[in-house]
Amino acid sequence: MKPLVFCLFVILHCIRADAQDRLVTRNGSISFYSKAPLEDIEANTQTAVSVLDKKTGQIEFSVLIKSFTFDKALMQEHFNEDYLESDKFPKSTFKGHIEELDKVSFDRDGKYTVSVAGELTIHGQGRTLTTPVTFTILKGVALADSQFDIALSDFNVAIPSLVKDKISKTVKIAVRLKYEDQARP
Amino acid sequence: MVAVLISLVGLYGYGEYNRSLPDTHNLEPAFRLEESTFVNQFETDEAKANAEYADKTISVHGVAHNIQITDTTATVFLNDGYSGTSVICQFGRESNEEIKDLKKGDLVTVKGICSGYLMDVVMVRCVLDHDHLKIK
User: Fold this and answer.
1) Where are the domains of chain B?
2) Structural domain of residue A11, as residue ranges?
3) CATH number at residue A104
4) Which residues in chain A touch residue B50, judged by CB atoms under 8 angstroms apart?
5) Cα(A30)–Cα(A174) distance, rounded to whole angstroms?
6) In total, how many domains does chain A have?
7) From 2.40.50.140, 2.30.42.60, 3.40.640.10, 3.40.50.1980, which CATH number describes the B27-128 domain?
8) Are B69 and B76 in contact (CB under 8 A)?
9) Are strands A125-138 and A110-122 parallel, antiparallel or unpaired?
């Protein structure tokens, strides 16, 4: 009986330690902006999910394409139906890691800018992405900020020939993730 | 006659181009559901639930387990406290005022547009359903 209790204790301890290493957000903010002669395109969502492992530096996020909200209804319809085909490709994901994990101290207040590298998948197409991310640690809360540009052609997002020269071929993406300790109730 | 027709088409095109997203207050819900029922359906068969609910206006009744308000948005997590999965309701800045009095543990009805399922069921452009109940 005693070995069984010991094994259970070890397993529970490992699960708890594992959970304590993970930071989670379920309402992360992602916005994108594109300036062009025909029309500026801007949309955002505050429903991105992200998990960050403090111990290994692994970082992932996922967002529903349909959750992006635009000011103009027609723009949102085109975005979902013609450009991102959100019924076919409902999610966009990123899976990567912090390249210089030893430069970030998640347990000490401060601001740390490090490089994060991984694979960004949009519209079913995966592309390698390396981008600087600033982690702001304040009273146990970790805030991650990053901005990067993507080329629509890298993700097979087709622009109709009629408006090809009037819509920007690159889009600026801003990510803001406010993490909480997963072990927190 | 042709000029009038062209003007009408132009006006329609201009109006259509500038059409705003409808105010969720004015949308009739396609479904009225309890939070746990809504979550269970996505956990059981995500594809089927997506086909049924994604892009639709849904009215969800449940407990405001967590409320997070920022300068630009507010998020209410509907959860009965027994599940790790919530219904995440994203309110716009214009709706911050109407949920400022909402407290954790209140029983509410939230109306929004279902976007799908990640770790939780996601609803955007949310508003409080006016017939919502509150339990102090």
Assistant:
1) 27-128
2) 2-181
3) 2.40.128.110
4) 90
5) 6
6) 1
7) 2.40.50.140
8) no
9) antiparallel
**Extended beta strands in B11-72, E state:** 31-34, 57-69
Q: Which amino acid is at B129?
A: D
Contacts B122 to A, Cβ<8 Å: 47, 64, 67
Calculate how close chain A gets to B119, using CA atoms only, in Å. Answer: 7
Per-residue pLDDT of chain A (185 residues; tens, 9 = 90+): 555 555 545 544 444 445 578 999 999 999 999 887 777 889 999 999 999 999 999 999 999 999 999 988 988 998 999 899 999 999 999 999 999 999 999 989 999 999 999 999 999 999 999 999 999 999 888 999 999 999 999 999 987 777 777 778 899 999 999 998 765 43
Q: Do B68 and A76 touch (CB under 8 A)?
A: no
**Which residue in the block uniquely carries the two structure tokens 């543990």?**
B105
Our CA dihedral for B124, A59, B51, B86, rounded to 10 degrees, sits at -60
Task: Find the CB nearest A69 among B86, B117, B124.
Answer: B124
Q: Are strands B57-69 and A170-181 parallel, antiparallel or unpaired?
A: unpaired
Give chain B positions within 8 Å (CB) of A67. 90, 115-116, 122, 124
Enter the pTM of the model: 0.86
Question: What distance in Å separates the CA atoms of residue A24 and residue B70, rounded to the nearest whole number?
Answer: 18
Residues with Cβ within 8 Å of residue B118, at least 6 apart in sequence? A26, A47, A49, A62, A63, A64, A91
Q: What is the ipTM of this complex?
A: 0.83
